[in-house]
Structure formats: C-alpha cells, structure tokens
Amino acid sequence: MDGNIFEKILGQESLFTDRKAFDHGFEPSRLPHRDHEIDSLVKNLVDALQGHIPSNMLLYGVPGAGKTVVTRYVLNQLREKGLELNQNVSTYEINCRSVDTKYRVIQNMASQIYERGDQVIPFTGWPTDRVLETLIRRMDRTGGVHIIVLDEIDNLVSRAGDSLLYNLTNLNTRLKNARCCMIGISNDLNFTQQLDPRVTSRLSQEDIVFHPYGALEIENILIERVETGLKGEVLKTGVVGLCAALAAQEHGDARRALDLLRISVQKAEQSAQNKVDTRHVKMAQSQLEYDQVTPVLKTLPLHQKLVLFSICINEQNGLRNISTGDIYRTYSDACIKIQVEALTTRRVSTLLNELDTLGLIIARNVSKGRGGRSKQVNSAIPKAIDAISLMSDNEPLVNEAALGKYKLQSQL
Ligand SMILES: Nc1ncnc2c1ncn2[C@@H]1O[C@H](COP(=O)(O)OP(=O)(O)OP(=O)(O)O)[C@@H](O)[C@H]1O
Ligand SMILES: [Mg+2]
Question: Of the residues 69, 154, 221, which should be mutated to test ligand 1's pocket, given the most ligand atoms within 8 Å of the CB?
C-alpha cells in the first residue's frame, strides 16, 4: 500500500469546525426555552447572595430535558456573582450514578473543600460518621452558603436508601458558621415515594418540572451547535428539522437530537460527501437504535429471551396484537425443543411486564368481557434489527430453539 494508512483520512477535510460543540458536556452560551426554569432557580438561589438560605429544590424532567445543563449554567453565574460581591458561595455537583454511596458522597464533598494540612479522607475505610463530622467542620471553616447538587439522585436512593438525604437536609441544624441548601435532580417523578415523608418534605420545598422539548424547540437548540460546530452550509434543507422531529418523538430528548446530528455528519464524512442530507439522518437513527437495543437484547436472561423469541417468530408469521396465550404456547414449545423446564404462566406474565419496562415490547391490557382481562403484545424492536440472531449470539439454546419448527397461529 502506498504511504501511511492514516493519511487518506487525515487529509480529508472535516465538515466539523468544532466537534466539541456536540459533546454531552459542552456548555452552550444560550439555553433556549428554559427561561422559566432558569428564572425559578435564580429567584430561589439569589438568597445565597443576600446571606439567606435558599430553599431545597427538586428538579424533575425526562432525560435530555436540560436539567443538568441549566443547573450548571445557573451555578456558574451564581459563583461569578458571589466573587464579585464578596459573598462566599461554594457549590458541589455530584453525579449519583457514579458516586453512589453515602460515604462516597460526603467524602467527595469534604475533599472538594480540602485545604493544605488537612487529613486526606480515604475512598473507603473511615466510619461514615467521622467523614460527616469532618465535612461539617470543613464547611464551617469555609463559611458562607454551600449549595449541594445531587444529580441523578434516584440512583443514590435506590442503592443506598435515604439516610444520606436525611443527614444532608438536617445539616443546617449542625452548622455553626455556614448554611447549606440542596438541589436534587431526577428523571423519575416518583422517586420521592422511596423516601421517608420527613425527608421528602424537607427536600422538596420547591419543585421545578422541565417539560419535554417539542420539535421546534429542539430545532432552536440545534441551531447554536450548527453555528459553532459545523462549517457553513454543509446541512441540506430538512436535516435539522428531521433530527429535531425524531428526537421529539423520543420523549423530547435534546441529547438524542445532538447525537443524531453529529452521527449524520459523520456518516456524510465517511462516504466522502461534503453535504449532509436526510438519508444520513436516517442512517444515524438506525445506528443509534441498534446501539441502544443490542446490548439489552444480548444480556437478557434465558427465559426472557425465549419469551421475546416467541413474540418475534409469531410476528414473523404475520401475527399482530399477540395474546399471552399464544405467546405461552410458543414459549412452551420452545422449552420442549431445547429441553428446559418451562416457567409458569404467572412467571411469564411477569417477564412480559419486564420486557415492557425495558421498552422491547408494547403490552396493552384489553378487557375480554365479564371482567376477564388479557394482554395484547407487539414487539417494539426496530424492524432493521434481527432480534433473534442477536439473542442467539451468546446463547446457544436460543439458537437451537430458533432452528425448530413451530405450530403458529396465523393472522386471520
Ligand atoms: N435549552 C437548551 N439549550 C441548549 N442545549 C441544551 C438545552 N437543553 C438541553 N441541551 C443539551 O442537551 C443535552 C442534554 O441536556 P442535559 O444533560 O442537561 O439533560 P438532563 O435533563 O440532565 O438529562 P438526564 O436526565 O438524562 O441527565 C446536553 O448536551 C445539553 O447541553
Ligand atoms: Mg442530567
């Protein structure tokens, strides 16, 4: 081969001018359609600049609704103003998906206000109360107002319970020279049901719900990224609109729209084209769907796979709105073929609920007269994805089941 194998791609001109504009951590200079939410945060947090304690807040909203980016933006401005006015404001942003135990959260906070000469708190090993005492001492030493953001807080609660929140919402009674307030962020509206009512009432003094973005709103969000991240006029008409429309269908997720646009541009680059058109967006959409569904399908437990397999082959046979009875018949047939014991209908019904929660099927309850109820099930896996072969990949028994012949109901 002539020359270095990287040369051809390195020499290719990129359609991006700044790929970082599409990174998930990028901080945009404007946040369209979040004025109301920003306003509510500002009205509450301004107390910190006036020597008062802001209320604790809970921010809710679907994934990609801008909760994290809005909070960061507001806190940056708050710190800036604090410095200008000589008001001591400390902020902590902790993502509870990665920092997910009580110990680690307080260790993380205490380490953020470490000063030279302080003892280093190890990642594990101290009694939790000792870490908490150290945190309180250091917060008092720093003084002023401390704003603690616990992002994706539902992860912490489901893993570690609410004792941390109990302690943190109680901190003001223990601090002598400092004050604190908490902002919890969650995309699960029901997460407070897992909390002790006393914790809920302290934590949710003020709630803000971030509504899902509509297609036009997402278009406006994309425009700034296009201006900062892409060369002029590389997008054909309709590209931004299609990315926005697809993401709006996906519960109004701005992150999804940004990913779609970035991958569409990459698809155009990979095929050495200097314009991005709607075909690239469709390719990007299929890739995202594939990337989303594949790991879930591959890692399902055996009986989940067999139940889903039963739905898929009935659908391949033309059946829609499959009844739980039909699913169970095919599933039991498959179990006989591969010589594993079939689960009870009740267990299979639970597995169907789980597949529904994972978004792999859509199950509707229908009434069958005289109080009887049954389910109608359809697969929710995108057509382009071969679910059976993905499930067979690392599970020889599914592969074996798929080789069998089945007596299937056909569409009447
Ligand atoms: N109004 C907006 N203007 C500009 N960019 C936005 C806006 N809203 C969201 N984004 C961008 O969309 C992406 C997702 O936003 P963000 O991470 O804040 O969502 P989230 O609500 O925290 O989602 P999750 O619940 O999944 O954590 C980020 O890249 C963010 O910069
Ligand atoms: Mg977030």
Answer: 69
Task: Say yes or no to pLDDT of 409 above 90.
Answer: no
CA-based nearest residue to 381, from 309, 323, 328, 331: 309
Give span(s): CATH 3.40.50.300, the chain: 34-210
**CA–centroid distance, residue 363 to ligand 2 (Å):** 29
Q: Is the CB of 68 under 6 A from ligand 1?
A: yes
375 pLDDT tier (thresholds 50, 70, 90): confident
- pTM (2 decimals)? 0.86
Residue-wise DSSP of 135-197: HHHHHHHH-EEEEEEEETHHHHHHHH-SHHHHHHHTGGGT-SSEEEEEEEEES-TTGGGGS-H
For range 134-157, the mean pLDDT = 96
Residues with CB under 5 A from ligand 2 (ion): 68
Check pocket membership of 258 for ligand 1, CB cut-off 6 A. Answer: yes
What integer pLDDT is reported at residue 49 of this predicted model?
95
Decide which of 3.90.1300.10, 1.10.10.10, 3.40.50.300, 3.60.21.10 is the CATH code for 299-403: 1.10.10.10
